[in-house]
Design a protein that fits this description.
It is a single chain. With 317 residues, this protein is α/β, with parallel strands linked by helices. It folds into 2 domains: 4-178 and 218-242, 3-Layer(aba) Sandwich (Rossmann fold); 184-217 and 246-284 and 302-313, Alpha-Beta Complex (UDP-galactose 4-epimerase, domain 1), CATH 3.90.25.10. Helix content is 42%, strand content 16%. It is built from 11 helices and 14 strands. Helix 9 (250-260) packs across helix 11. The relative contact order is 0.13. The structure holds NADP nicotinamide-adenine-dinucleotide phosphate. NADP nicotinamide-adenine-dinucleotide phosphate binds at residues 9, 11-15, 33-35, 38, 80-84, 95, 99, 123, 125, 175, 177-178, 184.
Length: 317
Amino acid sequence: MNSIILVLGCTGQDGSYLCKSLLQKNLSVIGVSRTSDPKRNNHIALGIENNFPIIKANLSDSYSIEKLINKYKPTKIYNLSAQSSVGQSFVQPLETQTSIVNTTFNLLETARKLNYQGEIFFAGSSEIYGNTTEPAEIDSKIDIRSPYAAAKYQSMILVKLYRETYNLRCMTGVLFNHESPLRGPNFVTQKIISGAINSTKNKSYKLRLGNINIIRDWGCAEEYVEAMQKIANSKTIKDYIICTGKPTKLKEFINLAFTKLNLDWKKHVISDKTFFRKNDIDISVGNASKIEQELNWRAKKKIPQLIEDLLIAKNAY
Ligand code: NAP
């Protein structure tokens, strides 16, 4: 029988690319969403809207998860469901916690009770490391600076606990920032792309951002979902960092996007102190060597190409 893969958070950026990639490998996919009327715009963009069903489930309710596992008997479960914005997590700390920790705890506990033998992948976050003085490795110092990071860290601890205590085949992929045309409009990279396009249409357009001196390790979502699969398919069940290992200044990201449209970013971008985040992370970079050496996965797309993809997707050229 063809194996069935369950994808929690299937309508989001990564869930959509992951479902597409699994389908291309001829695997059967069951998507899971919180709502009975899930947004399929990302699936339409990728041409997969008719290729797999989406089941509504309340992921905070263990009975819902039990029903899913018993009915579909998935060989793997990808747990990508989350309120995924760091900024929003300051506005909705409890919802962020519930969406991440309750889902993960419920999933692990239900899997334990059912003696589930498949793999469970959890999408962790680089936010747990705060400022990285050295490129972060999996056991680098934890420095929690947002409700989102707190929820991701608690979930990662639970994943480790269930793996080590109950022998569940579960693992965390600690994801550094990754982008694509499917990234939500509230994320800074999409704000920059839209801001650059608006500036071509209106010479006096101003894009207000927070701290533009931050440094991040930005990768490509389509590549990162391949890394997730390598981790979930690996014989050795362990946590990995998923990153490029390359630091990029936000200012450089801005410069590249505006320059591609023949604009001078300094005329359009304002770093507005009122948008500065308390306790913001100045630098967040990962060490990619473990996943490269052990799983033969490597980030390929460079920032200029990623920016070009984002501009093309918005018909900027
Ligand atoms: P995304 O586009 O925001 O998708 C997450 C999905 O989770 C949503 O489509 C939504 O699907 C579901 N969800 C469950 N509870 C939610 C809530 N309270 N508010 C909003 N959505 C909720 O995220 P992504 O970029 O694909 O990221 C996938 C996973 O990787 C997430 O767990 C994220 O935290 C993690 N991650 C992402 C990055 C990144 O750079 N993208 C970096 C580190 C970690 P339904 O509405 O259909 O249920």
